[in-house]
Amino acid sequence: MFRRLFVIGTTFVILVLTSAACTPESPTDAAPPETATVSEPPTPSATPEPTATPEPPTSITILGLEDGDTVTLTEGVLGPEALVTVEATGLVYDDRVYLQADGLVMAMERNSQALPTFTTELPWWPWHGNGDYELLINLCLADFGCYSTSERLTVTVADFPAGTPTIRDRFISLYQQNFDITLTAPAVSRYVKPWDDVVDDTRWVSVAYIGDMLYRIDLFDDGTTSVIGRPLNHMDLSGWMPICRPTGDYQFLVIFVDYGNTGLTQEDVLSVLDMAAAEYNQVFMDLSVAQGLDSPILHVETTGAYVTPPPQHGDVFPGARIEELTGYDPDAFDIIVQVDMDANMTFSQTFGAVGFGGTGCWDTERSAGIDIYFPIRNREDLMDEPLLGSVFDHEFSHCMGWEHAWPNGDASVAEQFVVDWQHNATFPTMLFGWEDMDGDGIVEILDPDPYGMTGE
Ligand SMILES: [Ca+2]
Ligand SMILES: [Ca+2]
């Protein structure tokens, strides 16, 4: 778990190197933006493996608030908000305390001064108006993962001012104003920046996959917004390259390019590819079954290709060369992956990171060619993160629209930060529409009127 948490931090930092061109506000009047997002270095040896479940701190308590209390609201930048005071003992340096309200993370503070008794005041927003809210404190240990504590209490919001928009109301209005769509039950989530040097700021995030478009709205704590529409499974005039709707059956062409310095064979990589695809298909099946479905919402098929020696040192293939080099027509595939078998990570050194992913499901001839890139340095890499954790998880999620500031899982602290490659660390089930938000029993990605959409 810790390894992934560490790696996520690295990822955020690296992202800025190529995502600066993704100017969300002006996709139409600019050159097609660079949609690829670079990823984390495969440095498993740099971080320790957790060996045992840590002991919880001696105590963690919400002060001055009892189960059943009615909370006092104050007016903040985003409207009415409340405060919770938490006191914890037994924390060590950089242990973090998260506050969650009705399933969404609200705020985090870290014990950055290693105080023996750590007291902090955390804000939260009654994001759906008057009613009961379950408050939960989660603890994330600096040298391990996160878990819920026993502090879970229900409080009541009774004096949310009539006529004042809730956070959810704001998103409903923003979808209406920016995209002319009426969603009565939008997905609402909140992302809290985990480290000071992370690029992405804390924000509320809502996304909607509707037809062949992905709509995304960010609402920042200073009240500003960022709004984007991106084409799904087709090329349009927006300037954005296509990404895949997170449902369907997608064909991957995975091209292994052997630099001859890893000690791995063609048979090694192709057999692990099959295993990795099978594992991820099982994850997709399990997540679908958890929603009451008996067939998977998403499924991948892989075709492996092997090229050696590399005809282009330190580069990826342009689309035009893929068929020549592999014998496969790239336009017959939804996602093209290049995995360099290269102990020196030659290509990664040309762009200052390790891997990238961010496009897919083209309905036109590919101008670029590669949707996901990742290197494998040795047998340890092959059996560990690059295929399972990066290609099929992190990078494929980017190819379906996921960004680092999208909360994973159901947007709870537990599902965002309790991380395990085999259980799809970067799969944002709520934001990919793999949950039923409007209460009709159909997950939104399969729902004919998603997010309680009304009207046209
Ligand atoms: Ca639904
Ligand atoms: Ca519906």
Notes on the protein architecture:
The protein is an alpha+beta fold and 456 residues long. It folds into 3 domains: 233 residues, 3-Layer(aba) Sandwich (Collagenase (Catalytic Domain)), CATH 3.40.390; 99 residues, Immunoglobulin-like (Sandwich), CATH 2.60.40.10; 84 residues, no CATH class. The chain is built from 8 helices and 20 strands. The strands form 5 sheets. It has a 6-stranded mixed sheet with strand order 1-18-19-17-15-16. A hairpin with a 2-residue loop joins strand 3 and strand 4. The chain is globular. The site of one calcium ion has 7 residues, from loops.
Q: Could you write a compact summary of the structure shown?
A:
The chain has helices at 2-19, 167-179, 266-290, 319-326, 348-351, 379-383, 385-399, 413-417, and strands at residues 37-38, 59-63, 74-76, 79-89, 96-101, 104-110, 117-124, 131-140, 146-157, 182-183, 189-191, 203-210, 213-220, 225-231, 248-258, 298-307, 335-341, 356-357, 372-376, 453-454.
CATH C-level class of the largest domain is Alpha Beta
CATH topology of the largest domain: Collagenase (Catalytic Domain)
Span from first to last CA? 45 Å
The number of E-state strands comes to 20
What would the keywords be for this entry?
single chain; 456 residues; alpha+beta; Collagenase (Catalytic Domain); Immunoglobulin-like; 4-stranded antiparallel beta sheet; disordered N terminus
Q: What is the secondary structure topology, with strand pairs?
A:
Layout (H helix, E strand, L loop, with lengths): L1 H18 L17 E2 L20 E5 L10 E3 L2 E11 L6 E6 L2 E7 L6 E8 L6 E10 L5 E12 L9 H13 L2 E2 L5 E3 L11 E8 L2 E8 L4 E7 L16 E11 L7 H25 L7 E10 L11 H8 L8 E7 L6 H4 L4 E2 L14 E5 L2 H5 L1 H15 L13 H5 L35 E2 L2
Parallel strand pairs: 15-16, 15-17, 17-19
Antiparallel strand pairs: 1-18, 2-4, 3-4, 4-7, 5-6, 5-8, 8-9, 10-20, 11-12, 12-13, 13-14, 18-19
Helix pairs in contact: 3-7
Bound molecules: calcium ion (2 copies).
